[in-house]
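lol forgot to send this yesterday, sorry. struct tokens for the thing we talked abt
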């Protein structure tokens, strides 16, 4: 039941978020750690969660939203189970990184910055993955795939269900 003793039951996520608020209650500088924890719980930051964070931390929702939109680590929309990152840095660009990105779009049907409707994939281009010697490079979740060619992309992505 919720704190007001009404008959409404809280979701598991809301109960987890309550624990986060308890941990950071009264602490200065709690906004970013609370946002990070909330995103870990929900997978992204839904609008109602941002309002709850604003209320519980006594910070204007505009400031909460400003922080969320400033930092690339925070996401306002649901993300796929598999995060595809294609490097478009200098080494990858020279070796065909844009062709890898095109192959990803063709294989999964979404463009850079989008998520498939079934939440299987989210596709992001990035400036560097730090694996220039393996260019062109793509990461899927924590797995790095280097020396790619466009014709290898679709089969590789099928491995991630």
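and heres what i got for the seq, position by position
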């Amino acid at each position: 039941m919720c704190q007001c003793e009404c008959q409404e039951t809280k979701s598991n996520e809301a109960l987890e978020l309550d624990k986060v608020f308890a941990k950071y209650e009264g602490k200065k500088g709690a906004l970013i750690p609370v946002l990070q924890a909330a995103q870990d719980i929900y997978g992204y930051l839904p609008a109602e969660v941002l309002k709850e964070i604003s209320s519980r931390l006594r910070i204007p929702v505009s400031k909460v939203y400003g922080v969320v939109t400033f930092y690339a680590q925070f996401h306002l929309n649901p993300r796929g189970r598999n995060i595809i990152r294609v490097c478009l840095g200098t080494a990858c660009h020279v070796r065909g990184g844009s062709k890898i990105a095109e192959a990803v779009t063709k294989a999964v049907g979404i463009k850079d910055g989008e998520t498939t409707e079934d939440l299987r994939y989210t596709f992001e281009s990035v400036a560097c993955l730090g694996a220039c010697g393996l260019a062109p490079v793509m990461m899927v979740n924590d797995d790095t795939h280097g020396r790619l060619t466009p014709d290898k992309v679709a089969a590789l992505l099928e491995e991630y269900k």
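The beta strands are 82-87, 121-126, 138-140, 143-145. anyway ping me if u want another try
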